[in-house]
Amino acid sequence: MVAQMDDLFTADYEGPGIAGVDEVGRGPLAGDVVAAAVILDPQRPIAGLRDSKKLSEQRREALAVMIRERALAFCVARATVAEIDAINILQASLLAMRRAVQGLAVQPRYVLVDGNRLPHWDYASEPVVKGDDRVPAIAAASILAKVQRDAELVALDARFPGYGFAAHKGYPTRRHLHALAELGVTEHHRRSFAPVKKFLAGA
Length: 203
Prior knowledge:
Blueprint: E1 18-24, E2 33-39, H1 57-70, E3 73-79, H2 81-87, H3 89-102, E4 110-114, E5 125-128, H4 136-159, H5 165-168, H6 174-183, H7 194-202
Parallel strand pairs: 1-4, 4-5
Antiparallel strand pairs: 1-2, 2-3
């Protein structure tokens, strides 16, 4: 464990072999949960890394390109809607994170995970609360995961017009709930989530 969280931005925690991990998509009613793992290259720093939710779409996409170009290693992984419904969203999120780290071309010597829980694995690791705004590698992972998931929901919007996926990205907005009532539940909706259950029960 790290003795002081304020030390997370020291060179020791930005060096080679430190992987940052984050996931996107726990709250939405539709779509996979997506995770990313990133090992940054200290010789190729990327300015402006921070929590993906605090960045504009344009800035996120520009940073995602730089991360893919400059990182020592990265991997984007997921847990599917079926897996979310089978094992619950928390376990599915941890599964996606485990797959992301396992998919790295360079195996990490230490893993920092956003949040307060760790997947079950053998990596030396620790959780970092609000790590996506404190640890550059976690911020980079949050950006890759969000850009990937957002693009998938935009593509889903083209296949299922009327639900507004491109706008709300699957989150339970008023528009989304209205569309569920009017158009029904798609194969991409999480049937274990209470609002979707409600519409299925009334179908």
